Backbone:
């Protein structure tokens, strides 16, 4: 085992000190949590797939000019990223009603929203990441107005780009969560996209069948979560049909039945 210094262990990732100042290594675990970590489990191979999906998505986003913390993937479970000061806000972008907004506002899951919504939550596990207004962000100084403008405009660009990218592989982007960090250059700082983008933090539904291809399979005990994550990676062209996250021979067709049985939401 290496002796590098662990900086932080989160629910799905471990952060280690990077090889050069200002860098960090993100190690992707197979651990899965839901409902503010009240439900815990493992999704075999998830870390490998999320590392690869997040690398792919961040690379594509950087090609359209979104600044991100991603530097390069190091191996199956690790990537090198820029060290940033995390803005303590979860930015949730929603195209279709699902999850917490349905409970909160009495919406039916699968209802398209009149237009894309951006919501903010305060990143605090002990408080259960409460929903906040922009006024709270300004009032408590969690981010400046200028930073919030940059964050909101990046979130919209990411949503437009990812909606198209997923639509091209017959997946509907229902909602997702982003995190941003401050990169300092002397006294000056700018916000860049940080954390990860993977089926852990997105709702992804097959456009034809409405099958869920994301962490809701784990949250709701639907089964087939490993296959769902692999299916997203496969459609993105990141996994061969017969290649599993562990590099074993894996026949998706024999597991597909596990992805069925999801009630078909209304059109
Ligand atoms: N999300 C996330 N981490 C969180 C909360 C939400 O990645 O701590 C993602 C979640 O996967 C979904 C979107 O943000 O894609 C909206 O989640 P929602 O508010 O519906 O919360 P949840 O269903 O987790 O209660």
Residues:
């Amino acid at each position: 085992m290496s002796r590098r210094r662990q900086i932080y262990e989160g629910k799905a990732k471990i952060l280690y000190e990077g090889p050069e100042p200002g860098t960090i290594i993100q190690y992707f675990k197979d651990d899965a949590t839901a409902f503010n970590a009240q439900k815990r489990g493992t999704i075999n191979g998830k870390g490998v797939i999320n590392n690869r999906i997040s690398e792919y998505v961040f690379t594509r986003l950087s090609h359209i000019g979104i600044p991100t913390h991603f530097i390069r993937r190091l191996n199956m479970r690790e990537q090198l990223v820029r060290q940033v000061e995390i803005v303590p806000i979860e930015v949730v972008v929603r195209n279709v009603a699902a999850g917490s907004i349905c409970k909160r506002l009495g919406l039916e899951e699968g209802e398209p929203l009149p237009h894309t919504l951006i919501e903010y939550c305060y990143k605090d596990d002990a408080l259960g990441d409460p929903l906040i207004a922009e006024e709270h962000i300004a009032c408590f100084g969690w981010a400046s107005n200028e930073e919030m403008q940059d964050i909101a405009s990046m979130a919209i660009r990411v949503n437009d780009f990812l909606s198209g990218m997923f639509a091209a592989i017959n997946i509907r982007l229902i909602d997702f969560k982003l995190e941003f960090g401050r990169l300092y250059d002397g006294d000056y700082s700018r916000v860049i996209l940080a954390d990860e983008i993977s089926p852990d933090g997105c709702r992804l539904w097959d456009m034809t069948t409405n099958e869920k291809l994301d962490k809701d399979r784990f949250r709701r005990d639907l089964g087939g979560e490993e296959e769902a994550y692999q299916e997203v990676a496969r459609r993105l062209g990141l996994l061969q049909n017969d290649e599993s996250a562990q590099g074993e021979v894996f026949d998706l067709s024999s597991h597909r039945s596990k992805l069925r049985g999801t009630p078909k939401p209304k059109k």
